[in-house]
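S1.2 Input.
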Amino acid sequence: MKHVLFTLTVLFILAIPALFIADWTPVFHNGVDAVTGASLEVPDSPSGNFYILMNRKYRNGTENEWKNFFTEKPVGVIFEDVSCQVLAADVTGKQLAERYQARLAENQMKLRSEPNSLLFSAKVENAYFDTAIVSKEIAEVCNITEVFENPDILVIPIQSES
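S1.3 Output.
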């Protein structure tokens, strides 16, 4: 019994300081913590012409910050979440949206892929969206360009070359 008490006492004396001195975060959190830098690689920008469509009703005065973000100009931290829609058939538009998503904090941009061009264009025409990314070709095919005169929609043209 004395041996067991002695062993427990020594372990207690050594274990308590070790708990406070050692960095146990990598052991319990798979090496990820709040101090570690982001390890996500930002994908290359696809080449082509694109339109970023933003519904001004949802921006609450931050549309200039988002415009700078989407045109890759310097911008501070944007504390606002964004929901982005792309057409499933628009491969390059989806790649551009994934690039933007990777540049933001995790879960700040929710990316939704719309399966039907009619559904997508109906949402854009009636301003039932937050943000949409569409390539110029798809915008012309879906007749989305006619809604550019809508004062509630901010249109940001993007020309990307890889």
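S1.4 Remarks. Residues 134 and 142 are 10 Å apart (CA to CA).
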